[in-house]
Amino acid sequence: MKSAVVVLPGLNRDRDMIAALTKISGTAPVTIWETDTDIPDVDLIVIPGGFSYGDYLRCGAIAARMPVMRAVAEKAAKGVQVIGVCNGFQILVESGLLPGALMRNTSLKFVCREVKLQVANANTAFTHRYKPGQIIRCPVAHHDGNYFADAETLARIEGQGQVVFRYAEGTNPNGAINDIAGIVNDKGNVLGLMPHPENLIEPAHGGTDGRGLFESALGVAA
Amino acid sequence: MTISNTVKITDELIASHGLKPDEYQRILELVGRVPTFTELGIFSAMWNEHCSYKSSKKWLRTLPTKGDVVIQGPGENAGVVDIGDGECVVFKMESHNHPSYIEPYQGAATGVGGILRDVFTMGARPVAAMNALRFGAPDHPKTKHLVAGVVAGVGGYGNSFGVPTVGGEVNFDPRYNGNILVNAFAAGLAKTDGIFLSKAEGVGLPVVYLGAKTGRDGVGGATMASAEFGDDIEEKRPTVQVGDPFTEKCLLEACLELMASGAVIAIQDMGAAGLTCSAVEMGAKGDLGIELDLDMVPVREERMTAYEMMLSESQERMLMVLKPEKEEEAEGIFRKWGLDFAIVGKTTDDLRFRVLHQGEEVANLPIKELGDEAPEYDRPWVEPKTHEPLAKDDIPHADVADALLKLLGSANMSSRRWVWEQYDTLIQGNSLQLPGGDAGVVRVEGHATKALAFSSDVTPRYCEADPYEGGKQAVAECWRNLTATGAEPLAATDNLNFGNPERPEIMGQFTKAVTGIGDACRALGFPIVSGNVSLYNETNGQGILPTPTIGGVGLIRDWSKMARIGFAAEGEAILLVGAPASWGTHLAQSVYMRDIHGRTDGPPPAVDLEHEKKVGDFVRALIADGIATAVHDLSDGGLAVGLAEMAMASGIGATVNQLKDLSPIPVFFGEDQGRYLVTIPRDRVDWFYQERVKDTGVFAPWIGTTGGSELKLGDARAIAVSAMREAHEAWFPQFMDNELSNA
């Protein structure tokens, strides 16, 4: 499978993501720039973490209005898989590709630590390599990861199994409603999550729990 | 407000620029006439303590700066050290003390930004950062506010820029009540044939301004950082710069892209004294003149004067000399990243520093003399007071278990998790050891086995009691921390924080500490390749504890054999490598004496450099040969705290013997230097003594065994590891919890 990574000014986990995709799939992803409106033919587009445009407006708000995001939205509408991690999740939410909002952590502080995640839905394109309900380790590193959605939206995404990852064992680091760490859109081809699976894919990282996500999405053998 | 260049130069104006009457006389001689207002500003910027090192230069020259692996020593933006395979590590530490006290968030943030810029200006991609922070007493009314602001500022900048913070220090002492210390370290990786320097070459070449626009922020910042604080400190806020990590991240990418294109001849970042210092350095180092046309400088405020533009410390700016044929390509790269690109001058052959503004020549100065002829002082100093050793029977008693728990939960010994969880420690995906161990470790990207270890160290109370031994100890502890991971210490950077050098007793601390640092660096083969001096850390005549922070870098050849501090398994033998006969003896200046008994008398522990080297090399070989299963060096809190830290890191307890007929206090809390705790499998103990210790002269007694869930120190009551963790983790969050109500 071919993949692409969106590179925007201020994103800073692009290199981590490119390394992870390369190590897991054996092929380096192509990179797409802010002004690219013609995205090559790929099966997976990843928007990595960071502070796009400094996050000087609401996190992800400026990036969501760049030309490249219109192209990503078109690809998503055609069924191409899209993953947004951390700032990438914020950008997807600001683009309207995913429901809800990501607010400042309840601690009001940036938090970088390892948390536990429960795979709340293992029946998605991004999680089928995990067991249903499996608890995995994963690091987080963000200032604005406090997921929120109004009651109606929340009921809908919970009801349709769109909540894919939940913070588990009391490790919710940001106050997210229903411990939500990651969600998919109603079609199931767009995933957003705050934690960084790309930083837990090899023994040097102290674990490989993050691999399952990329192995699922890239369709590679475990 | 605009300031005319025809302002009359009065004695008062000269004094307000931090220039002494004899310094002004020197200026008159060099210029041959009364300087213009802009020229006075330029001299003030170049000749202040921060930029000219006029009080410290004489002593800095005594430091060892060369070695087999040193590619670039002090004098450039950062030091460069060879790590093999055509790669090098570029690093430096720099203070941002004064700004951080005035405006903690921005002061700390721009400190991080400045040091990162120093590293990538050399052509290196930053891969690791550390921060050595020192605050006043926890109960001082400003402390919480400063801690909250500095930590958020360090994180805010480093996290957004995208560099992992892998180590550092946080300490509290009333002597920092009026002057906190923010020492920022950064390291980057580069190709040895891809290092960029500030020396300009070629006449008539374009001098290019890159990065962010120039504003009025930070005008006079370096001069401010070269004076003591008084009660007018609030008025100094406008001298603090404002950071923009987003622009810096773009600047990093644009600079590395531009360097790869082959367009760059010389590059200098605009740090202290901004445009002035960067232009003069590029010209003076290349034996060239520089002509600047300020009308071309991108500005973000209206009606800026030449004086303001020359002294602005706006952040995220660079000056370069480019190959003319590559100009267009270079501009394209900068435009892509949304950064300003402007040709603001040219190199000349007249060795003059000329500044034009609105058709007027506002400055015309001899460029070499601006830098090289800066005043240099051999300031008078007095021998620091020495302290009598404590009497042999002066061993204040305490319950060992109670004292240990109290220390683990104390302001200075408790876990710094509250701090480092606000820093991104994982970004770039190469962090192998995070804060909380002996050193931060980052793997070298693109290499199968290599990693770099980083540690920042100094024990200011030792330096206060004996600056020479304290200077030695700072180097030795840094070297020891690197060694404890298995790294071969390569080189170090120093950040020398002291009070007012015009006071002979402060100058005495400085000279002695630098001498100690030099002696230790020579003995351990650990040269100083970059650094920074921060003087005038005084408020209303009260100086800080002398704090010469040492930031060291080590190379781990195979990180799969790297050592960690946590006990690896139950039932392993614990060895105290490098111990004296009775394991521990020296209580004076220990945290036990200070925090349990309120005593700060007596001399600090001495560092026997020969012993240090021998024991360190011994331990490093144990790690490289895969014999040691866990390693931790002993420092603050001695054996008891060292054991507790190994237990807390793993959840495994230990039982430690007690020597008969000896008081347990110096054994468990003495801070004798040059000691490591090493664990090995029990079935290798006999072999270890026969084959490894043999006749090395290293004393390495088997002091106990790992196992269980409690730490049992001799006859003292056993303490659950969970109880130690609770005490250790509780202090910082509890202290900061009411930060808002008390800010």
Structure description:
- The complex is a heterodimer of chains A (222) and B (743).
- Chain A has 222 residues and is of the alpha/beta class.
- Chain A has helices at residues 14-25, 61-64, 67-77, 87-94, 151-159, 211-218; strands at residues 3-6, 30-32, 44-47, 81-85, 101-103, 111-119, 135-142, 146-148, 163-168, 180-184, 190-193.
- In chain A, a hairpin with a 5-residue loop joins strand 10 and strand 11.
- In chain A, helix 1 (14-25) packs across helix 6 (211-218).
- The relative contact order of chain A is 0.18.
- Chain B has 26 helices and 28 strands.
- In chain B, 35% of the residues lie in helices and 23% in strands.
- Chain B starts with 10 loop residues before the first helix and ends with a helix.
- The longest helix of chain B is centred in the last third of the chain and has 21 residues, at 504-524.
- Residues 739-743 of chain B have low confidence and may be disordered.
- Among the domains of chain B are: 11-54 and 197-373, PurM-like C-terminal domain (Phosphoribosyl-aminoimidazole Synthetase, Chain A, domain 2, Alpha-Beta Complex), CATH 3.90.650.10; 563-737, Phosphoribosyl-aminoimidazole Synthetase, Chain A, domain 2, CATH 3.90.650.
- Chain A binds chain B through residues 9-10, 12-13, 15-16, 19-20, 50-51, 53-56, 109-113, 139, 141, 143, 196, 198-199, 204-205, and chain B through 152, 155-156, 159-162, 244-247, 249-250, 253, 337-338, 420-430, 432, 443, 559.
- Chain B: ATP binds at residues 53, 92, 494, 531.
- Chain B: This is Phosphoribosylformylglycinamidine synthase subunit PurL.
